[in-house]
Amino acid sequence: MNKEIAIDGPAGAGKSTIAKKVAEKLGLVYVDTGAMFRGIALYMTEKGIEANEPDRIKTELEKIKLDIVYEDGEQQLILNDENVSKSIRKPEISKAASAFATIPEVRARLLNLQRELAAKRPVVMDGRDIGSKVLPEATVKIFLTADVKVRAERRYKELTEKGENVDIADIMADIKNRDEQDTKRAVSPLTQAEDAILVDTSSLSIDEVVGAIIKIACEKNPEFNK
Ligand code: DC
Fold first, then answer.
1. 201: Cβ below 6 Å to ligand 1?
2. Closest Cα to residue 126, out of 150, 142, 110, 103?
3. Is 31 helix (H, G, I), strand (E, B) or coil?
4. 70-87 pLDDT, tens digit each
5. How far is residue 60's CA from residue 150's CA, in Å, rounded to a whole number?
6. Does residue 45 have its Cβ closer than 6 Å to ligand 1?
7. Measured in whole angstroms, how far is the alpha carbon of residue 32 from the centre of its chain?
8. Contact, 22 vs 207, CB < 8 A?
9. How many angstroms is it from 98 CA to the middle of ligand 1?
10. What confidence category does residue 225 fall into, taking pLDDT thresholds of 50, 70 and 90?
11. What whole-number distance in Å separates Cα of residue 65 and Cα of residue 82?
12. Is there a contact between 168 and 223 (Cβ–Cβ < 8 Å)?
């Protein structure tokens, strides 16, 4: 039995916060796959390419080199030798990432990279299709969700705490838009794998969710405790 944990769910459900803490506690490596889609979206956007231009996307994909490295335990995304970990977090890149993630060639390219990373060492990987497509054999599969209003409030709090001037109605609209696009795309849509455990975080604290996932993991494979 492997020591892989797959965490999927919609935007703003708390996946990265939770996955990072679970990885820390269990001594696993955290892999944020959303960052990879964001990296491709950033590259294409800077070239003036839109998600409805499949031919240009295919040509440009060949010029992209993506690397994942860790600095002080934090995942860094290196796009053609430049650390883009900050610029991929802009709201327009969130939107673009969801759009470029519908392109089969983009997904195929990242699928390889994701599986290579998981083959190197045990991971907690988060995304939209990790349990259903990327790591179908993962020992633990969690589908993390929360009410859309709660997700919008959390994102609002996070951004205003960073000093950003944002409107909660815009955040809510953006989340709904991404949910729709991520769930309805033809290739590897956001979905709860058959054997995934649903965790609704709407009224749970971060520590409660982390504790629940660690318990599930150690029950499934006592090796997680070691
Ligand atoms: O998790 P995130 O918000 O950083 O992801 C950005 C977008 O990337 C998301 O809206 C959909 C896409 N994505 C995906 O399609 N599959 C994944 N495994 C991870 C992200």
1. no
2. 142
3. strand
4. 999 899 999 999 999 999
5. 38
6. no
7. 5
8. no
9. 6
10. confident
11. 10
12. no
